[in-house]
Amino acid sequence: MLSSLASNRAKGLCEVDAVTAHALPAWSLAHWDADDDTVLAAMAAEVTRHTGGAARAVALKRWRHARPTRYVDGPAAVRDGGATLVFAGDAFHLDGGRVEAAWLSGIAAAAAVR
Ligand SMILES: Cc1cc2nc3c(=O)[nH]c(=O)nc-3n(C[C@H](O)[C@H](O)[C@H](O)COP(=O)(O)OP(=O)(O)OC[C@H]3O[C@@H](n4cnc5c(N)ncnc54)[C@H](O)[C@@H]3O)c2cc1C
Fold first, then answer.
1. With a threshold of 0.90, does the pTM exceed it?
2. Nearest to 90 by CA among 78, 106, 75, 102
């Protein structure tokens, strides 16, 4: 059910054992209309299962457009006469949905218009 679990302490964001947990897109979609308490309880149970510590959920944020729904291999370039329009971002990399993918896609897009 979880797609990632990150320690905010390890990231230097806080000095307590707080984590940010992301649910898998399919799970999020299936529970989009569930009330906050239900989602928080399910997330806390999953974090407890993975960490072994008794997790208490304190905040919920729903990102409807958090991840691309489709991925493309490399930046998409559209050429029309002398003009070139290049699309880049985390969707334009097969290992997408992360900052690295957006970065690599941006580098490739810059090379495409050079
Ligand atoms: C909650 C959350 C946590 C994340 N944590 C991590 C993490 O720990 N590590 C990691 O690698 N990745 C993480 N990601 C993923 C990462 O944020 C994305 O992969 C990355 O930001 C994608 O970069 P991008 O430039 O492709 O798109 P974005 O960062 O989404 O940038 C797109 C920009 O376009 C703008 N925009 C959209 N539509 C228009 C429009 N019509 N006109 C003008 N501007 C527009 C938006 O406002 C935005 O500024 C996380 C994502 C979320 C949602």
1. no
2. 102
Distance, CA 88 to ligand 1 centroid (Å)?
A: 12
C-alpha distances out from residue 23 to 20, 28, 31, 106, Å: 10, 6, 10, 27
Helix (H, G, I), strand (E, B) or coil at 37: helix
Q: What is the pLDDT of residues 69-98, one digit of tens each?
A: 899 988 887 888 888 889 999 999 888 888
Distance CA 26, CA 50 (A): 19
Residue written as token pair 């399919």: 26
**60, 93, 99, 104, best to mutate for ligand 1 pocket (most atoms within 8 Å of CB):** 99
- Closest alpha carbon to 75 in 107, 52, 51, 45: 107
